[in-house]
Amino acid sequence: MKLKRLVPYFRPYRRTVAVGLGLVVVSNFFITLAPRFIQRGIDALQHPSPLAEVGKAVLFLLGTALAGGLARFEMRRALNSASRYIERDLRNDIFRHLERMPAAFYGTHPVGDLMSRSTNDLLAVRMVAGPALMYTVDTITRALLIGPAMIQISPRLALYALAPLIGLPLVMIFVGQTIHYRALAIQAQFADVTNYVHENLSGVRVVRAYRQEQSEIKHFRSLNEEYAHRNVSLAYAAGAFHPLLNLLGGLGAASVLYFGARLVVAGTVSPGAFVAFGVYLATLVWPMIALGWAINLVQRGEASMARINALLSETSTIVSPPRPLLLPPATRGRSLVFEGVWFQYPGARERGYVLEDISFEVGAGRSLAIVGPIGAGKSALVDLIVRTYDPDRGRILLDGVDIRTLSLKELRREVGFVPQETFLFSATLRENILLGAPDDGRLERVSEVSQLVEALPALPQGYDTMLGERGINLSGGQKQRAAIARALARDPTVFVLDDALSAVDTQIEARILHGLRDALVGRTSVIVSHRLTAVRDADWIIVLDRGRIVEAGTHDVLIGRGGRYWELLRRQQVEEELESIAE
Fold first, then answer.
1. Other beta carbons within 10 Å of 472
2. CA 416/CA 488 separation, integer angstroms
3. Separation between Cα atoms, residue 482 and residue 122, nearest integer Å
4. I need a labelling partner for 519 at 20 to 30 A (CA). Which of 126, 366, 427, 491 fits?
5. Domain-ending residue, one of 262, 279, 312
6. Is residue 582 part of a domain?
7. On the CB side of 386, how many CA atoms lie within 13 Å of its CA?
């Protein structure tokens, strides 16, 4: 059963759940007492002085109603609060699991689908842990208490009343399975709707630029209509459940009325007992309806839990080793070595290797530049340094230690990484730059190096300006400068810059590079750039082409060879001249 995985989440709250379930029994005990006092009060009307007995019955009825009501209030409070805490814990585990998953996972799982599992599916599971559990136990307990009481009044009458309920298991099995499959289809469609909305809101500028608003609205309408259709389909199945239960209960009530009246006329059953029997049966009808609702919740919850289980069952290949090694103390950066590294993206094996037999060494405190045409494998290479991916073959060493033997926490503490695609959170500029680093004055220093200070006068609250989603209220160049400042704020021993100066003009780029030269003294740096002017001062330059190192050397040496590096530089100079003429 898919819901088995939910059991461990009950353990921290087992006392609360036990108290809640105990109160279910207590409340039903008082509920089953009420018809007895009704019977006593009605039968007392046949006595010479009935009012005293009727008064006692009324007092007892009020007492049981008050006690039963208090028990049901505490029952709901205990079980529903426990279900909320279980939902919280499960949501925390899902988020923690998602935080640990590698980049390859997000390449095959749309964000909208993950959001759907973390919200809508989780809500369905919480309904199982709370209301469904409560009403299932409530119905079973009430049936166990009321059944013997009805049999005690009249076994024959109990048989007539309960006979129609034999069909209940068949209804539960047939309709329950239908609800399960239709609920699963609804959750899958909801994930598609969520993902589509997420993509459109993220890419709203592209949609508007290409005048695709009506097309996107039409497509969303079709997705939404399918979602509504699947919900209506489930409503038909769930809607049939309650009438069937009412029908079975109505048949039982009709049997009681007909056969019970005959027993009263025959004197076999007293009028008070007949009324009490009817109250017992009526008291049993609502839990039967609630049981149908609970089964509906369980079926939907099981479908949702299956999706959550599938998510939690995903494993990450990018993990810390059981016994991680420690890096030696750093005196002047870290040495970085690639030994025969081969790599291809997971899930894209048909494309072949992105990197083939890559080997080089960067001394501690030295700088390496990586250049090459688009698609040469530059970003893939730097992704391997921070273990966004692991190589298929070969090793990457940091101070002579294979990075796969280090804990991810230590590795990423040592490496400051500025990715090609800049991402900023919906927080203040200060929080985005520091991002876990202490606010000890380094904010101003790194902002000077990255030339971010030039953007501050345009921001209403300076560093405390709240950024929109993905930093939408900053320009592309300002985002890149903020990302560079964020990486420097971590005070890394290895600094990796993946073509993160593409959105700044050449003058600001020159100032940033000048500031970086001073800031990176005593650190190892790896700089990827399509602008060769940004890498000419590096201690060593490697040229990638189709995943292989085709040239390596200093700027002057590579220019002297007149090879691939010289061709890239010459082409870039021609492009810049054409741009200046066009202006």
1. 11
2. 7
3. 36
4. 427
5. 312
6. no
7. 24
Q: Which of 57-61, 460-464, 494-498 has the highest mean pLDDT?
A: 494-498
Does 345 reside within a domain? Answer: yes
- Asked if residue 128 is part of any domain, the answer here is yes
Give 157's Cβ-side CA count (13 Å radius): 29
In this prediction, residue 91 has a pLDDT band, given cuts at 50, 70 and 90, of very high
pLDDT in tens, 296-316: 788 888 888 988 998 999 888
* Contact between residue 527 and residue 369 where contact means Cβ atoms under 8 Å apart: yes
Residue 150: what residue type? M
Which CATH number goes with the domain that contains 267? 1.20.1560.10
* Cβ contact 269:157 at 8 Å: yes
Span 110-129, average pLDDT:
87
The whole-angstrom separation of Cα 297 and Cα 572 is 64
Return the amino acid letter for 457.
P
CB 355 within 8 A of CB 382: no
Q: CA nearest 415: which of 365, 324, 483, 487?
A: 487
Residue with tokens 């220093």: 445
How many Cα atoms within 13 Å fall on the side-chain side of residue 60? Answer: 18
Identify the sign of the CA torsion 488, 397, 395, 540. Answer: positive
Task: Give the chain's domain count.
Answer: 2
> Are 34 and 98 found together in one domain?
yes
Instruction: List strands edge to edge, sheet with 355-362.
Output: 355-362, 336-343, 393-398, 401-402
Amino acid at 317: T
Q: Which of 56-65, 168-177, 341-350, 522-531 has the lowest mean pLDDT?
A: 168-177
Domain identity same for 344 and 472: yes
Among 382, 404, 393, smallest CA distance to 317 is for 404
What domain range includes position 528? 336-576
CB 182 within 8 A of CB 234: yes
157 vs 290, 380, 475, CA distance in Å? 24, 78, 80
Q: Residues 235, 360: one domain?
A: no
Question: 305: which 2 tokens?
Answer: 């839990």
Q: Is residue 107 part of a domain?
A: yes
